[in-house]
């Protein structure tokens, strides 16, 4: 008997959890994330879902409706690992990711995967016989926390990022992506790689809300209208290393001063424009207590309501940084490492999913967070997202949370959504 939602949640809760902080360290192609992917395969097999995987570790468990019909409507007793890609058309895919940001929360990603498995169970309980293939997917490296490129698994699947470029990415320890995959027994994107999106014509992702809109609106579930454009930009500031005690303040070429003023400028620019700008990662060289640094590298996460607003925001921050660098005697180089355009989810699909529920229409709202759903939408796949209420709005933090009743409401919402799409 497959585990229900709460049992599945208890099973994965300890995996990758830092007991001291409560945060999660589920970086891609590491032991905790690999353990979760193995757990997902086991859950699929318990439900008779046929598991396909590619050379990156992306996974899809397919509901084999034809096999169930042959068995009188009962789920298959065993799933098949590494089932070859079969000729599939007009398929509906759901799911999310299992990796986390550094010291992240429990719900961002895994909630969508666990809810998808539970939604399959709910549909079977209601004797739903899909007229379209249904898959539950897991995308790797959604957060970009290890190799710096968010939604890397779905970008490679859709061709948004070439494998020749991705394989050369390095993590903070200098490990190439290709080598990290090889260490996990994964070949990467071989010429004959499995196309997990073949035949997929609709994608629905359930996700914990990363904000407080549903709390303010008094709803447990909402529907996404779109995703703000956003990007990651590396600010490399070069100065001159020197002695912290003997070097006069006026003689210094200190990149830390330039960086500090840039952080303040980003905060001011975003607040005035009603946008988002965050420097959340910094590296200092040589990183000594009694030394003026020679180099500071900071990463700006910028998000805005339109592409033009995003470009204007980044340019304002960069201009202020260049101005400060000139006064400090430092040099500045700004590099766009990852930029995602504005995503508008299929409006007809969103309106259809939001309307006519027992508790009234679900609210439709935008999100400032990036998701694999945005990558699939940009690739031309009609896409929708469901959000589950987050009582505090906190995310990418150990304090990220969703109440069990709201999670179960999300399972019901996803099951209802999938039933509408496949019946």
UniProtKB/TrEMBL annotation:
<protein>
    <submittedName>
        <fullName>N-carbamoyl-L-amino-acid hydrolase</fullName>
        <ecNumber>3.5.1.87</ecNumber>
    </submittedName>
</protein>
<feature type="binding site">
    <location>
        <position position="290"/>
    </location>
    <ligand>
        <name>allantoate</name>
    </ligand>
</feature>
<keyword id="KW-0479">Metal-binding</keyword>
<feature type="binding site">
    <location>
        <position position="108"/>
    </location>
    <ligand>
        <name>Zn(2+) 2</name>
    </ligand>
</feature>
<dbReference type="Pfam" id="PF01546">
    <property type="entry name" value="Peptidase_M20"/>
</dbReference>
<feature type="binding site">
    <location>
        <position position="396"/>
    </location>
    <ligand>
        <name>Zn(2+) 2</name>
    </ligand>
</feature>
<feature type="binding site">
    <location>
        <position position="143"/>
    </location>
    <ligand>
        <name>Zn(2+) 2</name>
    </ligand>
</feature>
<dbReference type="InterPro" id="IPR002933">
    <property type="entry name" value="Peptidase_M20"/>
</dbReference>
<feature type="binding site">
    <location>
        <position position="207"/>
    </location>
    <ligand>
        <name>Zn(2+) 1</name>
    </ligand>
</feature>
<comment type="similarity">
    <text>Belongs to the peptidase M20 family.</text>
</comment>
<dbReference type="GO" id="GO:0050538">
    <property type="term" value="F:N-carbamoyl-L-amino-acid hydrolase activity"/>
</dbReference>
<keyword id="KW-0378">Hydrolase</keyword>
<feature type="binding site">
    <location>
        <position position="232"/>
    </location>
    <ligand>
        <name>allantoate</name>
    </ligand>
</feature>
<dbReference type="InterPro" id="IPR010158">
    <property type="entry name" value="Amidase_Cbmase"/>
</dbReference>
<dbReference type="GO" id="GO:0046872">
    <property type="term" value="F:metal ion binding"/>
</dbReference>
<feature type="binding site">
    <location>
        <position position="97"/>
    </location>
    <ligand>
        <name>Zn(2+) 1</name>
    </ligand>
</feature>
<keyword id="KW-0862">Zinc</keyword>
<dbReference type="GO" id="GO:0016813">
    <property type="term" value="F:hydrolase activity, acting on carbon-nitrogen (but not peptide) bonds, in linear amidines"/>
</dbReference>
<feature type="binding site">
    <location>
        <position position="303"/>
    </location>
    <ligand>
        <name>allantoate</name>
    </ligand>
</feature>
<dbReference type="InterPro" id="IPR036264">
    <property type="entry name" value="Bact_exopeptidase_dim_dom"/>
</dbReference>
<feature type="binding site">
    <location>
        <position position="108"/>
    </location>
    <ligand>
        <name>Zn(2+) 1</name>
    </ligand>
</feature>
């Amino acid at each position: 008997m497959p585990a229900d939602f709460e049992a599945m949640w208890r099973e994965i809760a300890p995996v990758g959890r830092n007991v001291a902080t409560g945060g999660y360290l589920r970086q891609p192609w590491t032991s905790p994330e690999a353990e979760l992917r193995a757990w997902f395969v086991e859950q699929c097999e318990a439900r008779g879902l046929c598991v396909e995987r590619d050379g990156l570790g992306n996974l899809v468990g397919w509901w084999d409706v034809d096999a169930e019909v042959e068995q009188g409507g009962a789920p298959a007793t065993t799933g098949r690992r590494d089932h070859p890609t079969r000729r599939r058309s007009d398929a509906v895919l759901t799911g999310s990711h299992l990796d986390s940001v550094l010291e992240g929360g429990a719900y961002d990603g895994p909630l969508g995967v666990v809810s998808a498995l539970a939604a399959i169970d709910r549909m079977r309980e209601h004797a739903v016989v899909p007229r379209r293939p249904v898959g539950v997917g897991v995308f790797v490296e959604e957060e970009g926390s290890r190799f710096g490129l968010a939604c890397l698994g779905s970008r490679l699947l859709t061709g948004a990022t070439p494998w020749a470029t991705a394989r050369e990415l390095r993590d903070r320890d200098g490990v190439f992506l290709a080598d990290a995959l090889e260490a996990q027994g994964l070949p990467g994107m071989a010429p004959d790689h499995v196309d997990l999106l073949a035949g997929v014509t609709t994608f629905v992702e359930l996700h914990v809300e990363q904000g407080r809109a549903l709390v303010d609106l008094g709803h447990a579930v909402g529907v996404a209208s779109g995703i703000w454009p956003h990007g990651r930009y590396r600010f490399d500031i070069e100065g001159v290393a020197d002695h912290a005690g003997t070097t006069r303040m006026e003689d210094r070429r200190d990149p830390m001063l330039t960086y500090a003023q840039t952080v303040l400028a980003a905060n001011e620019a975003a607040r005035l424009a009603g946008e988002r700008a965050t420097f959340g990662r910094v590296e200092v060289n040589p990183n000594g207590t009694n030394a003026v640094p020679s180099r500071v590298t900071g990463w700006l996460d910028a998000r805005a309501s339109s592409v033009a607003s995003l470009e204007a925001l980044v340019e304002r921050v960069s201009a202020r940084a260049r101005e400060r660098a000139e006064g400090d005697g430092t040099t500045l180089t700004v590099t766009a490492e990852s930029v995602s355009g504005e995503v508008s989810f299929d409006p007809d699909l969103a309106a259809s999913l939001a309307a006519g529920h027992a508790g009234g229409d679900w609210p439709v709202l935008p999100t400032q967070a990036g998701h694999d759903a945005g990558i699939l939408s940009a690739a031309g796949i009609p896409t929708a997202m469901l959000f589950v209420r987050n009582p505090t709005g906190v995310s990418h933090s150990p304090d990220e949370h969703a109440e069990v009743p709201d999670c179960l409401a999300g399972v019901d919402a996803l099951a209802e959504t999938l039933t509408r799409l496949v019946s």
